[in-house]
Design goal:
oxidoreductase, alpha/beta, monooxygenase, about 35% helix, single chain, binds flavin-adenine dinucleotide, monooxygenase activity
Length: about 400
């Protein structure tokens, strides 16, 4: 008779959160299987600002230095109001003393590849979409779209904003903010010559930003709230491009140039979703031997560029906690029930560590986005004249977090 294969750990989703968790576990000598619905690493959105806390997590799993070599360090943030034309805040990231932070805009493809390349071959199983989860004593069974089933001691949902695992844990569908973001990347044949700065422009009801990733590539984004007349724009990239370019009339022409240079077909708006703080406060981040990480746990708006960085933190903390659930004296045998209890405790510990961090960062991001993108004249005035430095400092505050190393002591 054939013995049934039981995986120790199954991670659903080979995005930032899933791969960081898997690499962290691998470094700690624990094997995991990553199930990815796409037929390759799925790259959406070109690049992401990676702040100090993200670099600490990347270092913890051992891929920080490789990515540093591929991306330039951003030396500051300049915010300009397109309403008044004034620079509302200028912040240096290289200043000596408390405000020295590392920020680089990392190409997503390179980040995913750097993580995936650290895993033993066969760790990621592509074309494996999880459609249902079933209880089976001390185990869980993941049902895949192709009819396959996989039995596991631990099931981790890193399956993004529409997570099936989060749904199984009782979380509601992430809420829509009413806002969208378009992202693009302008690639140059030679050095673009731009200062390595994060440039932000705040308009009436929209926010636009640009930052170099390296000497040849500049990442840009445009975030706005469509009004009812704009509905048709969502389905018409050419009209959407015209709409965006028109909004940017007051922007310096050299920055506007690479948005204009982007092909109309690439003007694809991404809806911005988030989880309410009370759901994060009361929801089950873990239940028995199941938990969620990354966007599956804390989908949030991109306004302080922290969601992906928090997904990296989740991966390090989760790998560290889970390794305690698998540690045992060499040569000893652990009963199924005892192992289940240890795993459950380790996931509860992870949930305790991540709950308040997730609430804090996602609430701050939502609040910053609402102020930065304000339509009202009063809030725009306060944003540009009173709150500019406060808002710029929030980027520092939320990135000043250390998720620690993979080892508990
Ligand atoms: C417009 C925008 C701009 C952003 N900018 C930044 C930024 O500057 N800085 C930053 O830190 N963050 C940023 N973010 C957030 C960042 O992109 C996400 O937080 C990050 O990608 C989350 O990683 P993840 O691994 O949790 O989820 P994902 O990246 O969504 O990965 C989930 C993976 O799971 C797979 N999957 C899904 N369902 C299943 C299933 N049922 N079975 C198997 N596989 C499945 C998917 O194919 C995917 O590969 C931004 C987000 C948006 C929308």
């Amino acid at each position: 008779m054939e013995t049934e294969v039981v995986e120790d750990i199954v991670i659903v989703g080979a995005g930032i959160a899933g791969l960081t968790t898997s690499v962290g576990l691998h470094r700690l000598g624990i094997r995991s299987l990553v199930l990815e619905s796409s037929d390759n690493l799925r790259v959406t959105g070109f690049a992401m600002n990676t702040w100090e806390n993200g670099w600490k997590a990347l270092d913890a799993v051992g891929v920080g230095d490789l990515l540093r070599q591929q991306h330039i360090q951003v030396n500051g943030n300049v915010t300009t109001s397109l309403v008044t034309g004034d620079q509302t805040s200028v912040t240096s990231f290289n200043a000596t003393g408390k405000q020295h932070i590392e920020v680089r805009c990392v190409k997503r493809k390179l980040m995913l590849e750097a993580l995936a390349n650290e895993l033993p071959s066969g760790t990621i199983r592509y074309k494996s979409k999880v459609v249902a989860i079933q209880e089976s004593g001390f185990y869980k069974i993941a049902h895949l779209a192709d009819g396959t089933t996989i039995k596991t001691k631990v099931l981790i949902g890193c399956d993004g904003v529409n997570s099936v695992v989060a749904k199984w844990l009782g979380f509601k569908k992430a809420s829509f903010t009413g806002r969208y973001e378009i992202r693009g990347c302008a690639e140059f044949k030679t050095n673009h010559g731009f200062e390595p700065r994060f440039m932000q422009f705040l308009g009436k009801g929209f926010r636009v930003g640009a930052v170099p990733c390296d000497e040849r590539a500049i990442y840009w984004f445009f975030t706005w709230t469509p009004i009812s007349q704009d509905k048709e724009l969502e389905e018409n990239p050419a009209k959407l491009k015209q709409y965006v370019v028109k909004k940017l009339e007051k922007m310096p022409s050299d920055v506007k140039y690479f948005i204009e240079k982007t092909e109309a077909d690439d003007f694809l708006p991404a809806p911005l979703r988030y989880r309410h703080p009370w759901e994060l406060m009361l929801g089950n981040i873990s239940k028995g031997n199941v938990c969620v990480a990354g966007d599956a746990l804390h989908p949030m708006t991109p306004d302080i560029g922290q969601s992906g960085c928090c997904a990296l933190e989740d991966g390090v903390v989760l790998a560290r906690c889970l390794s305690e659930g698998f540690s045992k004296e060499p040569g000893t045998h652990i009963k199924e029930k005892d192992q289940y209890i240890r795993i459950e405790e380790s996931l509860k510990k992870y949930a305790r560590e991540r709950r308040w961090r997730s609430i804090d960062v996602s609430f701050t991001s939502y609040m910053v986005g609402s102020i930065q993108q304000a339509e009202s004249q009063l809030i725009s005035f306060l944003r540009d004249k009173v709150l500019a430095t406060f808002l710029a400092n929030l980027y520092f505050k939320k990135s000043a977090y250390d998720c620690g190393t993979l080892n508990s002591s």
